[in-house]
Description:
Layout: H1 26-40, E1 48-54, E2 60-66, E3 69-70, E4 75-80, H2 84-91, E5 94-101, E6 106-116, H3 119-128, H4 131-139, H5 149-162, E7 174-188, E8 196-203, E9 207-212
Antiparallel strand pairs: 1-2, 1-5, 3-4, 4-7, 5-6, 6-7, 7-8, 8-9
Amino acid sequence: MQKDLSGYRKSYEKSALLEDRISNNPMQLFQTWFYEVEESNGIDEPNAMTVSTIGLDGFPKSRVVLLKKYTHEGFIFYTNYNSEKGKAIEENPKVCISFFWPNLERQVIIKGNAGKLAKNLSDGYFESRPDGSKLGALVSDQSKVIASREVLERKLRELEKEYADKEISRPEHWGGYLVKPASMEFWQGRPNRLHDRIRYSLTNGVDWKMERLAP
């Protein structure tokens, strides 16, 4: 089986990324880009991002999760701490997260260190979730092998009865991570494959160094 994809071509011509028009702070630029992709209404979930980790088996693995908050410190997402990604982060907190916004011909690649959020912050977010999502966190032993889908659906029905008149508290194995960036690269598609790539690297833990990379 094979399929030749070499004929797929697109000319990127929607924008430019020039040093004299952008902030010296990458989080400020990220905020600007995120606002622009939200306003464009061209993507269902602009907060969808790819999280890449190095697994316990030595292989890198990437999966799409949802960014739930960003601050001057970094990027926050939530997951099961006992999942494959959670165990990978526990072993090696160096991760890569990336965003791809094809309608604006942009991507952002962020390398950083992931650390667990304070319990009260995870509690606060968990309380804001719909009950169905809360129960989902209790139902799923994320990343473990299960016999069938019926196993999940049966367990969900049991928990729905158990918690019909009870508050659903956050399980200890579920919570948030904050990814503090050490490097942030912004990519803007340009004609003739001469794309704009601007990388910000954190120096002395405080200041950002901006550099242009060859496409």
